Amino acid sequence: MTVVEFAKTKARKPILYSLVSAISLGVSQATLVACHGALDLTAVPANVIAVAVGSIPSYRLNRSWVWGRTGRSHLRREVAPFWMLSFLGLALSTGAVAVVERYDSSTVAVSIANLAAFGALWVGKFLLLHYVLFRDAPAADAEPIDVDVAIAA
Length: 153
Fold this sequence. Notes:
single chain, mainly alpha
C-alpha cells in the first residue's frame, strides 16, 4: 500500500496527522534549539525562524500523506488558509516564548513554551484541516485555478 492509498483511509488520518506533527515538531524544535542555543538568538526571532522552517514539511506532508492530495496546490483553498493557521500558531508561540524568556531564558524553557503553544492548537488544527481546508470539494464546484506555489524555494 502506498502512502497516498494509506492516507485515503479515513481512519488513518489522525495517525498520519500525528506522524506529520512529530516530524514537523522535530524540525521546528531542532531549528529553535539551533537558533536560540547555538546561534544565541533571543527567543522571539528564534521562534519565528523555527515556526517558518517547521511549517514547510508540515504543509507538504499533511497535504500529501494525510489528505492524499497530489498535483499543484490551490492558493486560495489550501495554501493561504494553511499559512493563516501557521501564523496563528506563530503568534501564540511567540507570545509564550516572550513571556517565558522574561523569567527563564534557557533554551529548554523556551522550547517548552513553544511546545505548549502548539500543543494547545493541535486538535483544533486537525479539525480545521480535515473539515475545512482539505475537505472533499463538492462535485458542483467549478474547476479551481491551481497555482504552483514554491513553498520551499
